[in-house]
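Morning F.,

Quick status update on the modeling queue. The single chain you submitted on Monday has been processed. Sequence for confirmation:
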Amino acid sequence: MENSEIQHYPDLKIFVLKVGDDFAKIEYTEKSGCYYLMHSEVPKHLRGRGIGKELVEKTFEYLHQNKIKAVAVCSYIKAIAARSNKLNMLA
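Structure tokens below.
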């Protein structure tokens, strides 16, 4: 199963990674131009396949490429950032 590129829906304040007919998402809030990454979610039947990690890393890349500052609030996002040495991409 091939995963798509990350999609950003600013009107909904989410990042989405399409996985087959399903999707994983990161929800955020925004304040003063900084994104606060509040919640990540992968459908239960897709967990344990590395999709969450891919979702978080692709979101970090999008943020970095678009020069958007972000703060990881979600404990899972924080853990992936620490393990991936991506903390420097966050505000």
